[in-house]
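Sequence only, no structure available. Ideas?
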Amino acid sequence: MNTDVHTPPASAGAAPFHAQANAPAQVAPFRTKADALLTLKGVHTHIGAYHILHGVDLTVPRGQLTMLLGRNGAGKTTTLRTIMGLWQASQGSVVFNGQDITRLHTPHIAHLNIAYVPENMGIFSDLTVKENMLLAARSARNINQIDQARLQWIVKLFPAVEKFWNHPAGKLSGGQKQMLAVSRAIVEPRDLLIIDEPSKGLAPVMINNMIDAFQQLKASGVTILLVEQNIHFAKRLGDTVAVMDDGRVVHAGDMAELAQDEALQRSLLGLAL
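Reply:
I predicted one. C-alpha cells follow.
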C-alpha cells in the first residue's frame, strides 16, 4: 500500500493536514489470553417471532483481533447488533470491560468507547466526508478540535478521506465509503471496534489496503471484532476466531490453527479449498 499522502489541488477539496502521520502512541499493558474485554454467555435473541441466536458464547480478548465467521444466515450480524443493543437479548449476558451491558440502550453502549460499523456502513450520503468525520468525533465541535495527529494518521491509512474531504460521501465508490466508515469509527481512540464485513464488495487492491489498515490498527493496541466472509482476509488478520452456525458458536480458538486445517474449514464453513 502506498502510504504517501499527496495533497490534491484546492479544487479537489484537500484537507489542511500538517501534523506528523505517526500512529497515536498507545502502549498496551501486558495481557494474558484470559483477559477478555467482551464476553457473551448464553445469549439468545428473538426478532419478532423468530428465534435467531440460540445461546451464543463468545469471548473477545483484549488487544487482539477476533474474527467472527460463518455461513450466510448463521447469526453473525445479529450477534453484533445484540452487543450494540440494537436488538435486545432475551436471555444470557453481554459483559464489556467488566460491566454488564445486556440491557443498556445503544447510545449508552456507544459512550462506553465502542465503535460499530454496520454492514451498510452507516455514513451520511448527503454530508461531505469532512462533515461525516466531524459528526463521529463526539468531543469536537469543529474540525480543528479533532486531534490533528490522529487525523493525519487516518489519512495515511485511507488517502481517499483526504482526497475527497469536501465531497459528498454519497459520491464515493463502495470501497471509499467503506474506508470512510472505518475512518469515522477510529476518529477518536476506541476501546473496541466492531465491524461487519469490511471487505464486502471490495476489489482485491482495496482488500489489500484494508488489510494493511487493520494491521496498523492492531499494532496500536485496539481490540477489534470483525465479521467476515472472506476466509483469506480472516487468515491474514485474525488472532482468534469464533465460527457460528444456526445461531450458535460451534468453534472457537486461534485463527492460525483454523487457517492450517483445511478439513476443519470445509466442515465449519463449507469452503471448497
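Confidence is low (pLDDT under 50) at residues 1-15, 25-33.
Hope that gets you unstuck.
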